[in-house]
Amino acid sequence: MPKFVDPVQRRELIADGLFAIVLRQGLGKVSLRTIADETGLAIGSIRHYFSGADGIVRFALETLVERVGERLEARLADMLPRLDAGSIDHGEAKELTVDFLSELLPLDETRHRESVVWLAFEEEARTTPELADVFETAVRGTRVLMARVVESMIGRGVLRAGLDVQSEAETLAALIDGLTLRSALHPGVLTPERARDLLAAHLDGLRA
């Protein structure tokens, strides 16, 4: 009986192989041959799912965006009911908000890997129009999520009333982008833990 191959798992394996190559050698070293070597798959098997390396790069970027987005949504789904229940004070609410936003910072091995890979993709997208739309969608989605969080925290009295939701969302997104860049690529200059502290300090300035 032929062995069943789960196409979703196989695509995920290929994406993870690409991530590993980018982390060690950079995006410029990605090819069907290097992905085959990394994953232990035959090039023909990879071609069954993707016609070439460019298609894998796009799929891997979409996979990265989806994984981070799912974690953010899961954290938000856990956080908001706890705030609505009214059983925690403003200090605890702020910590929950910091924890939520810190999902985008390289605070553990998984998030560090994702941050480094994301930055490599971002540089590639600057000169590769085929990736630009994925990045634009992801960036816009992050801004919408930030605005959702800010508006929610204002409505619950965690952040002070009168804040410009869109401006604060843009500021938060830009702050997290900068903290991620520095702490992922230059942890000796800015440790991930210090990045989290700076994010918390910024939110302190917005508290009610």
From TrEMBL:
Q: What is the organism field in this record?
A: Brevibacterium siliguriense
The answer to whether UniProt assigns keyword Nucleotidyltransferase to this entry is no
Q: Which UniProt keywords apply?
A: DNA-binding, Repressor, Transcription, Transcription regulation
The HTH tetR-type domain covers: 8-68
- Nuclease keyword on record: no
Stated name of the protein: DNA-binding transcriptional regulator YbjK
MF GO annotations? DNA-binding transcription factor activity; transcription cis-regulatory region binding
What residue ranges does this record give for the DNA-binding region?
A: 31-50
